[in-house]
Design goal:
Length: 230
């Protein structure tokens, strides 16, 4: 099977399991670092002509990360597209299982390990958090997001979880009560000198890959994020 992946976390999922299946990936597919495949531009502007030239049996996309117009165009070219759309850890694990079995006929050990890691419920104290994902304008995690579910499973409740939007805009000066600001380094590259100063409560910089990617990073995400949020 020849696979083109338009989703960085799914590129990593396939590359560490059956790398020989990958013939193309986006410029944003940075893991594993040694991945050597044809690049097809970005997640929002894939090179459809180049993808067609690669003659893939399957293109893997995500309902949130990739544009519907590009997915439709690929299908119009006669290319099969596999869509993912997890909003919880359980959905991510199940969709990874389904995808990898479909293209490799195998469930990798890292996916079994990830299920085990996330099977234990959190039982410690809880905190309320605002989780910015962009600046200028300020935007945060809202309702029904995978990253929000990841945080809830380590005792961090998103203050915008009941928002009418998935990524609402907000003003740091008029936030609802919160205990901590969680600042991932992607999609906006928040850093100790870019972001924390805008919040009145403590701010913690965390790994965006461990917060938002669903793939092999899930094995260590729970311990990495818990440590960063101490």
């Amino acid at each position: 099977m020849r696979v083109v992946s338009l989703v960085p976390s799914l590129t990593e999922s396939i590359a560490v399991t059956h790398a020989h299946l990958l013939v193309g990936a986006t410029d944003w597919c940075t893991h594993p670092a040694e991945l050597d495949v044809t690049r097809v531009r970005g997640t929002k502007n894939p090179d459809l002509e180049r993808i067609q030239e690669l003659a893939p049996d399957l293109v893997i996309a995500n309902a949130e990360e990739n544009r519907a117009v590009d997915v439709d165009a690929l299908r119009a070219l006669g290319i099969d597209v596999w869509m993912t759309s997890p909003t919880t850890v359980d959905e991510a694990l199940d969709q990874l299982d389904e995808l990898l079995v479909a293209i490799t006929a195998d469930v990798p050990q890292w996916l079994r390990d990830a299920r085990a890691v996330w099977s234990t419920p959190y039982s410690g104290p809880r905190r309320r958090a605002v989780v910015p994902i962009w600046r200028r304008p300020w935007m945060a995690l809202g309702r029904d997001t995978f990253a929000g579910d990841v945080l809830s499973r380590i005792g961090v409740d998103n203050v915008f979880a009941e928002s009418g939007e998935r990524y609402p805009r907000f003003d740091p000066e008029t936030l609802p009560p919160y205990d901590v600001a969680v600042l991932p380094d992607e999609p906006y590259a928040f850093a100790p000198d870019d972001g924390p100063e805008a919040f009145q409560q403590p701010a913690k910089c965390v790994s965006g890959r461990h917060l938002t990617w669903y793939g092999p990073s899930l094995v260590e995400a729970r311990s990495v994020l818990s440590g960063q949020l101490e």
